[in-house]
Amino acid sequence: MQEQKNEFTDVFRQEQHKLIRYVQSRVSNISEMDAEDIVADVVFNVYNRVLADQPVENLIAYLYQAVKNKIKDYFRRPKPVLSLDEVDKTTGISKAERLLDENGNVEAELEQKEFILKFKAALLQLEPKQRAVWVATELDDYTFKELAEKWNEPIGTLLSRKSRAAKVLRKALSDK
């Protein structure tokens, strides 16, 4: 059983990014996070099968078939319905009324939402350690000293990562 666990771990490390790309190639307009979620769910289920002493002959083929089936489930799940009659809890105005509101600045809201999407995409371009430092210092209000102690990393390394992250973000946001 331990041998099959080790084989599973090795195969998963080799195939993880390929499986995510496989999902992205099969599902148009899926975020990387959703693709990762599909793969993670499959891996969890397959790993539990390995733990339950149910051997899998060709692990790679089994993983891809399981991912293919999970993609079908993804398409089958009900999509949320958008209603123009839905009332915004903060303003008390329905979506239809907001669209017709002459004082409402739909263009500004749209631009803000587009910027947020661009920013999220730019954050995903960062290396995980750079993203972690940037998020921790900018969004979670950690100091570099706190992070250095918490992560057992030199402050200079953290500063360097954040600097590189800021450069990538600036470039990504200015190019788009």
TrEMBL record:
Keywords: DNA-binding, Sigma factor, Transcription, Transcription regulation
A GO molecular-function descriptor: sigma factor activity
Protein family membership: Belongs to the sigma-70 factor family. ECF subfamily.
Name by which UniProt lists this protein: RNA polymerase sigma factor, sigma-70 family
Keyword set includes Transcription regulation: yes
Stored InterPro entries: RNA_pol_sigma-70-like, RNA_pol_sigma-70_dom, RNA_pol_sigma70_r2, RNA_pol_sigma_r2, RNA_pol_sigma_r3/r4-like, WH-like_DNA-bd_sf
Cross-referenced NCBIfam families: sigma70-ECF
Keyword Transcription: yes
UniProt xrefs under Pfam families: Sigma70_r2
Residues of the RNA polymerase sigma-70 region domain: 12-77
Domain of life the protein comes from: Bacteria
